[in-house]
Amino acid sequence: MSLEAAFADEPAFVPYIAAGDPSYEASLEYVEALARGGADAIELGLPFSEPIAEGTTIQEAIVRALEGGMTPQRYLEFVSEVDADVPLVCMTYYNLIYQYGESDGPRSFVEAAAEAGIEGFVVPDLPAEEAGPLRNACDEFGLDLVFIVAPTTEGERLETMKAQVSGYVYVQARLGTTGARDDVSDHTERSLARIADWDVPKAVGFGIKTGEHAERIVRAGADGIIVGSALVDIVAEGHENGDSTATVADRLEEKARELKQGALAGAAVEQ
Amino acid sequence: MSLEAAFADEPAFVPYIAAGDPSYEASLEYVEALARGGADAIELGLPFSEPIAEGTTIQEAIVRALEGGMTPQRYLEFVSEVDADVPLVCMTYYNLIYQYGESDGPRSFVEAAAEAGIEGFVVPDLPAEEAGPLRNACDEFGLDLVFIVAPTTEGERLETMKAQVSGYVYVQARLGTTGARDDVSDHTERSLARIADWDVPKAVGFGIKTGEHAERIVRAGADGIIVGSALVDIVAEGHENGDSTATVADRLEEKARELKQGALAGAAVEQ
Amino acid sequence: MSTDSKFGDYGGQYVPEALMPAIEELTDAYERYVLNNEDGFMDEFRDRMRDFGGRPMPLQRADQLSARYDTEVYLKREDLLHGGAHKLNNALGQVLLAKYMGKERIIAETGAGQHGTATAMAAAHLDIPCEIYMGETDIARQRPNVFRMRTNGAEVNPVTTGRGTLKEAISETMRDWSRTVENTHYVIGSIVGPHPFPSMVRDFHSVISEEARQQIQEKTGDLPDSVLACAGGGSNTMGMFHHFIDDESVDLYAVEAGGSSLSVDEETGVAPNSASLSTGNEGVLHGARTKILQDSDGQIMESHSVSAGLDYAGVGPELAYLVDEGRVEPVNVDDDSALEAFHRLSQDEGIIPALETAHAFGYLERVAGPATEGRAAESRDEHHDRLGDSVVINVSGRGDKDLETVIEETGNRDLDNAPDMSIFREIGGGML
Amino acid sequence: MSTDSKFGDYGGQYVPEALMPAIEELTDAYERYVLNNEDGFMDEFRDRMRDFGGRPMPLQRADQLSARYDTEVYLKREDLLHGGAHKLNNALGQVLLAKYMGKERIIAETGAGQHGTATAMAAAHLDIPCEIYMGETDIARQRPNVFRMRTNGAEVNPVTTGRGTLKEAISETMRDWSRTVENTHYVIGSIVGPHPFPSMVRDFHSVISEEARQQIQEKTGDLPDSVLACAGGGSNTMGMFHHFIDDESVDLYAVEAGGSSLSVDEETGVAPNSASLSTGNEGVLHGARTKILQDSDGQIMESHSVSAGLDYAGVGPELAYLVDEGRVEPVNVDDDSALEAFHRLSQDEGIIPALETAHAFGYLERVAGPATEGRAAESRDEHHDRLGDSVVINVSGRGDKDLETVIEETGNRDLDNAPDMSIFREIGGGML
Ligand SMILES: Cc1ncc(COP(=O)(O)O)c(C=O)c1O
Ligand SMILES: Cc1ncc(COP(=O)(O)O)c(C=O)c1O
Question: E strands within D40-139?
Fold first, then answer.
C-alpha cells in the first residue's frame, strides 16, 4: 500500500517507534501490535547517535536501541521481517543514509530500504534545500519523501518543500522537539491553513497523547495524526518495570486503538 | 663591670641566650650556669616576634620564649633577678625598644634597662645610620651600643659605625644568619684587619661551636668570642628530651667552660 | 540559503525545520550587523573587546624556544584575553549580536567549560540572562569552570542523558533552542554547526590573525613562514589562519589531538583521538557537513583527548575544506607529547598553556626539537624547510583550568621534563 | 643612605648589617637602571611588559555599576595582566634588574602564592633559577599556586617555622639572602621592606596610574574625582595612585581588609583584620618604619582577612606617610562585604575579581549602594560629595585563585547576593 493510500478513506493514525527499542525481538512485536491496534502507517526510527531533533523520551529510546545492537543493516533485516500490512516509513538522520554502502550519498541506502519494504523517509535534519540527492534516489526507487512543516516555516521555504514533498506532510503542531504534552496546540489550525493547497495528506504530530487529543486535531482539519512519545513512554515504562514483551505489546495495541478511535471520532463529528 | 672591662685581661667569652627559653625560671638558671662556666659578658636576647637576623636555631628559641610568656616588662624583671657578676647586653630588635613606654622612641626602654642592670645593646636590625636616638639615650644613661660588622661592611659605613660604637664591636665571621657551623671562616682575619684601628674590643661571632673553633678565632686576633646557637642547641635538646633544668644547666656550664678554655688557649699560643 | 553557506561541499544547514527560521533570522543579522556594520555593531564589538576583553593581544618573541628550535618563534597571546582563552572573541560577539537582534535570553553548550565561562562572562557584561547546558560528567570533572559560570550569574543545566558530555550538551541546547527560538539566541562555541555559525564565529575570531599579521610585519618586516594552531572545533585555528589564507608563502598547520592512538576501535565505537581532519571522513554532524569521526555505519564515535577542549568528533567545515584544498596541513600530536609541551612552555617561557594549546607546541618539538630516543632529530635543512625561519603559534588559552588534570596525567606517565611534584605528596591539602 | 629612602619619618633601612651592602648595591642599580634608564633598562622593561605581560591594560567603563551607583565607574583591568594580577609589573621589573646586576639566582617569599607565581613566571621568561619560600600552612591551602610555581620550574621551599605563613616566609627569605647576597637577588612582593624596595616596587607598578590617567582623560576629557584601590602591602595601591598624587582634585582611597572586626585581641596578639593604615601605629617591621599591627609591647600581631593577599600586619611606608599627610584616605571593608562585592562584580559585570580586589568594590557599595537593613542609603548629594561623578577603581587581580575559598566562605555566611550553589552538592567531584 502506498503512503498516500493510507490516508485515503479515513483519518490516518501514524505511530512512531524506534526499531530495536529495547531489543530487536521486542520491538518487532511492538510494531505488529501497533498495526493490530489500527495503525495506518508506521514511522519506524532507525537510531542515530546524535538525534538532535528528538525530545528526551525518544532520545532515550534511541539510546536503548543502539545499546541493543541496532544498526542500519539490522534495521533493513528488521523491516523485511515485519509481519503487518501497513506501509513503513524510515525516520532517521541524514548521516546514516549518506554513509550507507560503498560510495557516499543516499542512493545505496534508498535502494536497500526499498528492497526491504520501506515506503518512504522522514529525515528531520535534512532541509528541503539539501534534499535533492535523496529526492532523486526516492524517485528512482519509487519511495516517498516526507517533510516536516514547523509553525515557523514560511514563504520561500514552504514553496521549496511543497515542490518536493510526497506521501504526506508532517505538520509539527508546536515549537520544540518531540515529546508528549497535555495540551493540544492551537497552532494546528493555523499551520494547516498555510498548507491548505498542498496536494498531499496532512498529518499532524508533536505532543499528541490521548484519544481526545487525536479527536481535536482531526477536527481541526488534519488528515492524520502522528504519535511518538506517548507510545515510546509505554515501551520505556515496560522496560523499566521488567514487564514482559507481550504485556507491553498489549498496552501499545490498546493505546493505538484509543488514538485511532479518537481520530475517527474527530472525523465523524466533522462530517 | 663595664663591657670594655670584660675584655681587659684575657680573651672574653660572650655567650648568647634567649631570656625565657623555654621558661622564665629555667633560663634564669641557664644564665647563671653560663656565668659559672666562665662567661665574661652575656648577650641576653629579648624575644621579638619577627627575628629576621636569626637562624632557625635562635628563631625557635625565641618562639619558645614568647610562648613561655616573655615580654619586655618580664625581661626587665628577669635582668634584675639575674644573680651573676657579669655584664648583661640586651640583644633585641628595634621595634621593642621603640615601642616601650608612653611615648615613642628608645629613651624609655633604655632608662628602664639601665635601671634593671643592662650594660649595653645589640640591635641587629638597627643600622648605624638610624642609631642616633638610641645612641643618645645610651649616652644619657651610661650604656654601651654594640654594632655588628659584617664581612661585607666597607667604606663609609665602617666610619659611621666606628663613630658610634662602644663596649665592643661584634664581628660577624661570615655571611648568613646566626647558626653553629663546623668550619671556622677565614673571613675572620680579613674582617679584623679592616677594623684594626678601632679602639673597642673586637668580639667575633657567628658559627663558633667548639673550644677548638674558639681557639682559632682568638689566634686570628679576636679579643673575644660570641657563641649563641651552639648553646641554644643544648637548651633546645634538653627541652625536647624533657631533661631537668639542672641537667641542662650543667651541660651549658660545661660547654661554656670548653669555649672559654678554647679562647684562653688561643691567646696563650699567640703570646 | 545562499551559496555562501558552503565551503565547497562542506557546511550547509542540516537542522530540524523548527530551527530554520532562527537560522535565517541569524543569517540576516550576521549579514547586516557583522558584515555591513549596521548600527555600528562592529565598532561596538571592537570597543568592547578592547575595554572588556583586553585586545589587542601581544605577539611575543619566545626567546628560549627560538634558541631551541633555531627559528624565530612568535607567540600570539590569546591566553591573556579576559577569561583565559580566545573563546571570548566569539562569545562576546554573539551575545552582543543577540542584543542587537532583540533577543532576551542566551543559551550555550559547554564541554570543558571554557566556552560556557566565556559566554557567562559576556552575558553578565551585557546584562542578559544566560543558561549553559553541560553534561553531568563534565560538571563533575570541571568544577572550577562550573563555579565560574555560576558566579557570573549563569544557570548551569546538567545534562543527564547519554554519557553526560559535550555531544549530549549540544543536542540538549539545540532542543532548548527549537522550543525558544523566538526570544533566545544559541551561542555556539566553535566554527561548527549550521551556517551562518561557521562563518560568523570565524569572523569574530579573525581579529587574532588580523592583529598577528600586522604585528609580525612590524617586528620582522616580513610575513612568517608558517603559522600553527591547535584544532578542536577549529575556532582559534581559523581565527589564527584567516588573514593569512591569501598569503601563499605562509604554511598553515592545524594541530589536532592524536590522543593515545590514531587507530579507531570500530567494535566499541571509540576513537582514542580527536583527529577528525587527519583521520575522519565526510558526514553530517550537528547541522553541518564536515569531516567527522564515525564508524562505517555513520554513527558518531566517541572521541578522546587528554585535553577536554579538543575532545570533539567533528571540526569546522571551513577547515575541512581548506585541508582538502591543500591550503591547511592537518597534523596531530598525542597526549604524551602535549603534556611534555605543556611543561616545556611553562618552564622555558613562563607561560602555562591550556592543554589544547600545548598540542600546537608539541608539533613544534616534533619537527624541530632535539633528537630523543624514539625519534631522530630533523636535520637543520629539513626543519627549516618545514617551518621556515619564522613561526607564529597561537597560545589559544592559559592552563589554570588544567592544573588538576596535568598533575594526575603527569603522574600516570614517564615524562622527561615533568617537574618533581613530591611537594604535593609531602604536604596535604585540597587539590588532588 | 640618601634622604630619598624616607617618606617623612617612614621607610629607611632597618636590616641586618650583612644585608646592607646588597641594599646599597641595589640602590645603586635602582638609580642607574630604573631612574636613569641606563643601558636602556626601562625600554626593555616596557617592551617585555607589553609583549610578555600584555600591557597596556584597558580602562573599562562598568556599565552596570555606573547605573547602580549613579556615578561613572571605570575599571583599571590589571586582572588581565599575565599571571592574573598586577604582581607581574614588579616581579618582571625586579627579575630583569637582577639580570642587569649580574645576579644568577632569584629568591622570593609568597603568602597566597600570587607574588611567587608572578616571580616564577618572570624568572622562567628570563631564564634564571628561582626559589620561592612559602609557609607550609600556605602551601597546603594554596595548592594551585604552588603547582603553578613548580610548573614554571621554580623550587618551592616549605617554611616550617612558626605558623608557616607569610611572616615566616619573609624572615626565611631574608635569611637566605643574607647568606647569598653576592649572587642572589631577593624579589620582594610589595612596596614594603627596606629602601629602595618601596620606591622601586612603586615605580614598577606606577605604569598602572600612568596608563589610567591618560585613559580616563581620553574617555571623559577630565581627571576622575576619586581613585580606589585595595591595600595589603600596598603595591597595587601606590601603582594606582602614583600619577594622581599631584592632582589635588582627585581623592585617593586605600581600602584595607577590615576582616571580621576592627578591634584587636591584645590577649592572644591577634588582630582579626589587616587594617594597618586605619588601626595600626608606627613601628619597624621587615626593614622599614611604617604603620603596623602590634600589641602595646611592640610585638607584631597576627593579622586576618578572608583574602590571603591582604593578610599582612604592615603596609608600605609611602602609604603610611600619605595617610598622615591627609593625601590618601584609609578606609576598610570587612570580610562579609568583600564577599558580597565579589559576587556583585561577577554577576553584574562578568568579571570575577580577586578577593583582595573585591574589598575596593565593597567600599563603593558602602558609600554609594542602595540602602540595606543595616545601613541607610547615602543621600545622592552626600555620595556625590564622597565619590564625585567619576571613579576609577583598580581591578588588581582575578579571582580564579579564590574559587575554593569563596565557595567555602560563602557557605558559612548569609549573603544576599550569593548564587545558589546547590549544583555542587548534587553532583560529586574534585573541588571542595
Ligand atoms: C584554550 C583552548 N584552545 C582551543 C580550544 C579548542 O577549540 P577550537 O578548536 O574551537 O579553537 C579550546 C576549547 O575549549 C580551548 O579552551
Ligand atoms: C590581586 C591582588 N590584589 C592585591 C594584593 C595586595 O597586595 P598589594 O597591597 O601589595 O597590592 C594582592 C596580593 O597578593 C593580590 O594578589
Answer: 59-61, 72-76, 105-110, 130-135
